[in-house]
Write the C-alpha cells for this entry.
Amino acid sequence: MGPASFLQGGKIPPYKGEGGSPRLSLTSDVLDHRKCQRKYGLYKVRGFEASAPTAEFVGTFAHRSMEKAWREAREGSPPDQARMISIMEAIRNQLVYEEKRKPHSWNAVLKSGWQVMRMHATLLQRGLYDSLIDMERRLRYSHDDYVLEGVIDAIFDSGESVMLWDWKAANDPRRVLNKDAATERSRNYNQRVMADYSLQLRVYHHLYERTVGRAPDECRIVFLGEIPVKHPPLKKRNLTEAWADMDAEPLSDAEWDTFEGGSADPSTPGLFYTVSTESNEIGVAMEEFHDEALRILAAREVDEWCAPEQDCLPDRQTCLDCDFRKSCPALKEVS
C-alpha cells in the first residue's frame, strides 16, 4: 500500500513493535543482584537514588583515575605525582558537581587516592604500561533472552601471555575469612563475594576468548585497598593538600613478589587474587550466570524484590549503606 492509498482513505497497517533483548551488566546487574536482590530492585530497577554510597563513589573514582593515568602514559607522558593529583581532583569534581555524587567519608577517598598513586607508580616502574594494551574494554555476549555486557578493567598482552585484571578499590575478602573473630554472617558474605569475583573473571575469560579468539593466560583481581599507605585523617586539609603530603613510592620488589606468591592461595589475603580458569570452571560459571540472569528477568516481569534469606545476608556495611534498611524484613530478624 503506497502513500496515495492513505490519502484516499486506505487503512493504516497495524504497527508491530519490535522489542530488543534486555541488557544485563555483569557487575551492576548480576553481581549486585547476587549481593542483595531487594536493594538491587529498589535502586537499579525502580530508580531510587542512594543518599551517599561511599563504596560506589570510591570505586568509580579509582577506576577512572587508573584509566586516565594509563591513557596519558600511552600517549608518552606518564603522569608524575603532581599530575596524578590533578587528575584525581578533576575526577572528584566531576563526580561531585556534574554527577551529583557525594560519599559519607572523604577519608575513604583520601586513602583510595594514595593507593591509586602507588599503583600507578608501580606499573610505571615495573614497565607494565608497555604491555597494558587497553582499559575499560567493553565486551558483549548475545543470548536469546538477554545481552550480557562486561567491562574488563585492564588487558595486558606481552606477546607471550595475556592477562585480564579487574580493579577493586576494597580490601581482599580473604582477610575477613582468616579472622577468628569474624561473625558467621561476615564469613558467609565474604565467601559469597569471593565466589562472585571468581564468577566475574571466568565470564570475562569466556567473553574475551569468544571475541578475540585466544584464551587469556591469567585472570586476576587487584585489591587496591590492600596497598599499604599511611592514613592520617583528612581533618581541615583539602584532598589535594593531603594527597601531596605522601610520597607515592612504588611497591618494592619484595612486596610485589609476596603479593604475587600468595595470589592463588585462599588463605593468603593480599593485593592479588588469581582466579582458576579451567575449562570446566568456565562452563559452570556461564551456567551460573545464565541462571542468575533469568532470575533477574523474572523478577523484573513482576517487579518483586524479596529480602535475602538469613544465611544470605550482605555484610553489615552494605545494609548500613541502604536507605531502605529500616523496612527490611530480613534485618528485623537479626538480633
